[in-house]
What does this fold into?
Amino acid sequence: MDFTISDDRRMLADTLRRFLSEHYPVEHRNKVAYAAPWHDPAKWAGLAELGLFYALADEAAGGMGGSGFDVAVVFEELGRALCPEPVLGQLMAVRLMGAAGGDPGPLLSGETRYAVAMGELDAPYDLDGIETRAEGGRLTGRKSVVYGGAGAERLLIAAAGPSLWDVATSDAEVAGYGMIDGGPAAEVFLDATPGTCLMDSAKPALEDARDWAALALSAEALGAMEAAFAMLSDYLGTRKQFGQPIGGFQALQHRAVDLAIEIEQARSIVILAASGMGGPEQAKRAAQAKHLVGRIARQVAEEVIQMHGGIAMTWDYPVSHYAKRLVMIDHQMGDTDWHLERLGGMLAGG
Amino acid sequence: MDLSYSPEELAFRDEVRAFLAEALPPDIAARVAARRELGKEDMERWHALLQGKGWLAGPWPVAFGGQGWGPVEQHIFEEECCRANAPRIVPFGLKMLGPVLMKYGTPGQQAEYLPRILDGRDWWCQGYSEPGAGSDLASLKTRAERDGDHYVVNGQKTWTTLGQFANRIFCLVRTRAGGKPQEGISFLLVDLDTPGIEMRPIRLIEGGYEVNEVFFTDVRVSVGNLVGGENEGWTIAKFLLGHERTNIAGVGFSIQAFEQLKTLAQTVRRGGKPLIENPLFAARMASVEAELEAMKITNLRMLDRAARGGRLMAEPSMLKIKGTVIRQAINDLARRALGPAAAPFPSEELDNLAIAPEGHARNAASYFNNRKISIYGGSNEIQRNILAKGMMR
It folds into this structure.
């Protein structure tokens, strides 16, 4: 048994953390995350230059990582810095492109930015409910809340079946917008839009990409909640009311400790999910992580605000932005209840 | 035991319903229902319509231009207003300063200020909290020093709600240093046009502007603007906190929010069926609904006690804690029901894309904004302190 992080991954984490703390201080983050294009293209290029995307694929696919732990390390750092760069789309595209036998080269170098469009208004997570139709190499339908969709060069689109399509963003009608917790997204309207079919039967590949996304988002939340908790600890030690630091009050001490316990649980389930990627329990572990982290992240967000008091309700105090991200992560790639129902189904199915 | 309203109370409820159906402007109700920010004109228009009916200050005594409503009538009125998506009455003049002046003000102050609250000439805001004095309000530092027949005020207030629309502010200021902190505080009325006052907006978590910081630099205020005696402001502050609590449970807001959630869960489709048919989500809703039904009765039990002249001690704190928790739980489900459609940063242009069902594009924003309700007006932790002090002695 050995729970230490390998040297390679420690280095990856340190490099990324340094880059983000240097290039993404929270003031800069808030400036770019809430105004078009809702991220910083120069920093995106910087991440590509760093070779970050190569960590998302294994050597067979031309990358230099690609394990669950590589992905977890990357996203934990992105979360810690509250980074709005749309790396998730790149990760999912790497998985899907690999499954389709396509060339992930332009993805890994960062030359091409992809967004993955799975969800629709009435089927945000459910692959069987997709209504976008493909006919004669053309797609018609609407993909909703496509994370990273604004400003992406190409879209990987799940159509009914589900089948998987590669579409140039310039061929579709893309209405970009920012999210309440920062970062780009888009509505994608397809009206006999030309595309290339990558896979006719893409369900296993899409489920795999979703598992990886669930791991990545859980790790991102873990990084964000650790950062938010650190700010809370500082505040409890410095804010004085009734003549003493508020961290001296047992009522708050106990609640802070409860959060620390929950965050350890979150770290453990992320480790378990990372170790399960590529194995027979991948789907279950990813769902367990996303379910637990969804619940814990909301608890951390709400408690961190409440224990700070009014100050954490303000835009100018960074905790508020961490809290928003922590809550809204649960709206991506299946929320805590959606994964819970799947887990229940797996239990019932033996 | 009889859980229903009396015939007179039912008649009053029908009268309120009929009035709201006729008088509440549909454009304002639509904005309230969709949780959009209201403009100053919206609130002033609604106040004027209520004043036209004589209901703006329903609980005020008839002698001061009110209807002399008791707690039950007041409750019925507020619940019906929520149900109809009427704006909340701006409380600072009507529910806070008005009652303070009636109890502690001089006849001259009453005659000067009360009519101006009713006809809308004055919009009051509150100067209580300071950056260093939140939960520990008595540690406030803004000082008012006597100079002839004036006080000279220096310091900073914060969390001043809707101060951007106000022309006057009532403040707690320190008029004596040393001694117990509560004993050197006074209650002062200040015209916001006085030189030396600066109001700066504070942007909130979801991006909206509703609170402000107020800076006072050598602001000269006539001693005639002191309410009650010098150094007796804490008594008034405590009276006010008690008064702020008539609708402290926010049951009306919760009832309305739950109705909207029900409609939403019937509209949103998941797995080819309305979300409300999803057993897990329906169970979460049903659980909150049971809490809400219990809260309604708790609220009525306490109103009944108040109406029979009983003194409410622990009850307001209990109502505040449980009421805010329930309201936040409903907000939470209204956000979750949307799935990814909750994510877009709300804007007018985005409304055209109809990502969320109509009226629900701001569910996440209002979930975040309403994290404030367990913090303001004495945080739920402070309420627990009050309760514990009462129970454990």
Remarks:
- Residues 258 and 330 of chain B are 6 Å apart (CA to CA).
- Chain B has 13 helices and ten strands.
- The mean pLDDT of chain B is 94.
